[in-house]
Amino acid sequence: MQEKNLPAIDAGYWVAIVAASMCGANAGDLAAGPLGLGHVAGLLPLTIIFLAIVSIEKMFRFSTLFYYWFAIIVLRTMATNISDFATHDMKVPFPLLTAGLIIVMGVLIFLDRFTGVKSGTAQVRQGGWGAIPTTNWNYWVVMLAAGTLGTASGDWIAENDGLDFGVYWGSALCFPIFIAALLIASLYGRMTKPWYWVAIVACRTLGTDLGDMLVTMFRTLTPTRSMGLWLSTACTATLLCAIVYVWRHNRQAPPDVL
To answer: Which of 143, 222, 231, 240 has minimal Cβ neighbours within 10 Å of its Cβ?
Structure first.
């Protein structure tokens, strides 16, 4: 994507990423359930939508951060269904899926070293954030894998027989983990690529349980689960739009950081 359509990675970015994670988690369940696409059939149209977003962004001069965030939600929706297909339909054990996704992400991040893109943050403002993600093909594939890993991790924390925290306690547990991962990635890791992805996975894990928690809350107010999914998806999408609109990202950050 073009630099002018990319958000700076600051506090507002991480708030928006949490909202996008919740929205994508709900949208994935909505597509698989009430919309009747299942965990697999919806992947093709979602892929087409994602490719259309990327193509349109390159074709038109109109500048907006919503290109990026729409692409993020679509990938997150796909990741939710991929994870649910693997764990719920194919019965792949959570530890096995998690290990496989970590290996895939590690290989892709390593291979990205040979693309000529910088691997550090190269901050230009002392004490500030402001890096911009390099949205090449590797970035989007790793984002899909990170979303899948986050979905599996969130479900494992909330649903696994050995843990069985539920969505409420699962969210309460994941929140400090996400904050800790974000602080470590920022202060210790300088938000280099590997640390950036650690924070993203922690965010996706939190977003999964928060999204499911919101659906559970709406189910107490509506007669059906499908209505709860519709309301939760609409609320999280509205929340994301509000965050992106209100929180003005710094546009002077370097374009080729993460």
So the answer is: 222
